Amino acid sequence: AANGHRTAFVDNDRKPAGHGRMLRKEDPRFVRGRGRYVDDLQLPGMLHLAILRSPLAHARVLSVDTALAEAHPKVRLVVTGAMLAEKGLAWMPTLSNDVQAVLATDKVRFQGQEVAFVVAEDRYAARDALELIDVEYEPLDPVIDVRTALSPEAPVIRDDLEGKSDNHVFDWETGDAAATEEVFRRADVVVSQDIVYPRVHPAPMETCGAVADYDAVDGKLTLWSTTQAPHAHRTLYAIVAGLPEHKIRVVSPDIGGGFGNKVPIYPGYVCAIVASLLTGKPVKWVEDRAENLISTGFARDYIMRGEIAATREGRILAVRTNVLADHGAFNGVAAPTKYPAGFFGVFTGSYDLEAAYCKMTAVYTNKAPGGVAYACSFRITEAVYLVERIVDCLAAELRMDPIELRMRNFIRPEQFPYRTKTGWVYDSGNYAPTMELAKRLAGYDELRAEQARRRARGEIMGIGVSFYTEAVGAGPRKDMDILGLGMADGCELRVHPTGKAVVRLSVQSQGQGHETTFAQIVAEELGIPPQDIEVVHGDTDQTPFGLGTYGSRSTPVSGAAAALVARKVRDKARLIASGMLEVSVADLEWEKGTFRVAGDPDAFVTIQDIAMRAHGAGDLPEGVEGGLEAQICYNPENLTYPHGAYICVVDIDPGTAKVTVRRFVAVDDCGTRINPMIIEGQVHGGLTDGVGMALMEMIAFDEDGNCLSGSLMDYLIPTALEVPDWETGFTVTPSPHHPIGAKGVGESATVGSPPAIVNAVVDALSPFGIRHADMPLTPSRVWEAMRGQPVPP
Ligand code: PCD
Q1: Measured from the CB, is residue 226 less than 6 Å from ligand 1?
Q2: How many angstroms does the Cα of residue 11 sit away from the middle of ligand 1?
Q3: Beta bridge partners of 50
Q4: Which domain does 425 fall in, by range?
Q5: What is the pTM of this model?
């Protein structure tokens, strides 16, 4: 298929209207450079904002002298934390009920924290004037190591919180500790392993930014911003700034990648709003690469101890884990309120267990806040990594093939809906065929034979397997909310008189192709060609309320809403058709785009005819209003649980310890597939992400809390050169509760690939006696692992 990527199974369902491999409607704009991003916006009289950031990780702010900066001829405004405090705006709520400083007042708590901002006539002057601000700091001991953050000697980072006397954020547990202990006690085999998921960063191509424009005459604030959740952000601004909600319009224009990085509200957005309120002018703030890497939402940073209990024959009985979670200086995690550790509870994976237990402690450190779901439905990436790594450790212990061990323990198809030992109800799944397909596509047995031949020649080759189950599509509103906002999505559909349609969504695309796939969903239901359906999204004045795009929730939640709203329109169309054809509703048959009278092939009306009648002259059936439109708010019954099987082949250079991913086979199951081409693109992107995390990426700090990964020279992200031609395949296990059976897929490959790659590297190194090595598996780490180990036979 495209880009030289081999596709094992090509859907040949190129239907004129509906699901299928359709080119993206948004691409003519993107490939011509006509995308319109926040930084493309130029408004008359617009001013530019730049932020002064702390060079220290932990220090008291003694004074901030802005006189020289204010004297700069092009500077219009300089604002400090003290000034914000006077207006009650120095602190803002985070998405997890903590507070975060907009500008520091008392202390700085991480390197890169916002201390003051300058608004000037151009971007350069604003940046220059930052250097004229004189801040006096009193350095404090930084808390960098999460393992010592709770020791009684550790300085208290969050002394702004009343009564806070340590760096503890929360304790959380799930599963049954006693039952798990009992299973571990009687198990033949117990394996445990310390596993670190290092701090990484979503690093979208476009950094974060905003243009705020407050119109003092009509009292309306318009904020163009890089947000994955425009409606949720608007409500929070209304609460923080005390502005009425209908006087705030949040627009999320084209977004150059989100990956979870654009879910939180950052101080920069609030600063831009304040600046526009104070100057009466539009104000633009766009961060640079270093600011994005140093100060915005990171991901992972979990130190985990994994334990697995099994019988000698390889029956897995229980999994147990203890996690120390680094949340940085402010708890900026974006997760549903009830789930402080996100959906980490799915760490039981794809296996039918007798017991499971997890205990987690989260702490503050002097590092950037976050813990965002970076291509990860709320910590599922960490959960899948833990279980897939520990299962491989067990396979090594039992000297059993890793595929064989997994196959023996899969939840069986007849067990769905399956309630896990931590209380998650997996909607559907059929795991063995997915694993079998991956095995066949990879030529697994031949690969093992090849590995034996190569080992005999002293070459270092590894084969790694992983199998994931994700939980995506948050969520039923009874269980899930963000800061009290229920996670249900509105959707509106309007069919114009000539049969063209516009569908309005609350979710927001950041490159996923929603303008195409949501048109396809409606097209499939109504028989209107997708080209005739306009998708409107990313503007709170134009779209119904909903919680936004993250955790692969758009298809599971808004996708369901789009299908159901189209069915509502179809129901109304049926009534109108019965009037037009002068038959009862029961005599009508629907066939994509057309209502026919049963048994009379010549009597039919198309959806376009019906649309015209709905708006035209002439009577409509009794009780039917004019127009052809509907709206809905969809509250999902459950999450959807996609799954997949991955096989990775690596070669390690014995001289340099450099890992090369030679082959990667990914078989994903996201239920009904709306657009196979887009799905493949999502999978290719996620697999590339996985190579980055497994082999290259880490946000590192020195002992003073200096971030060592503030540029793309230091924070390595993969390109086409570091990845193989992806080999993809799929199986289809529809979701029983989703109206079209679709599950999310956007994050699947990012979740499933790191364990496959690490398992492959560890498999390659097993002749050296190695059972585990932590990501990122850079040449130096692999070299260290190999060094001093006995040379393989
Ligand atoms: N699909 C289909 N079918 C199915 C599913 C799906 O077709 N079954 C498709 C859809 O429709 C879209 C896509 O695919 O278009 C995706 O989807 P989903 O899964 O639903 O998801 P969404 O929600 O839409 O999205 C989200 C995701 C996430 S979450 C992330 S990270 C990432 C992904 O997405 N990001 C991104 N991917 C991507 N891509 C791009 N290009 N960019 C970006 O940024 Mo988070 O939580 O935020 O962390």
Answers
A1: no
A2: 20
A3: 118
A4: 299-474+638-786
A5: 0.97
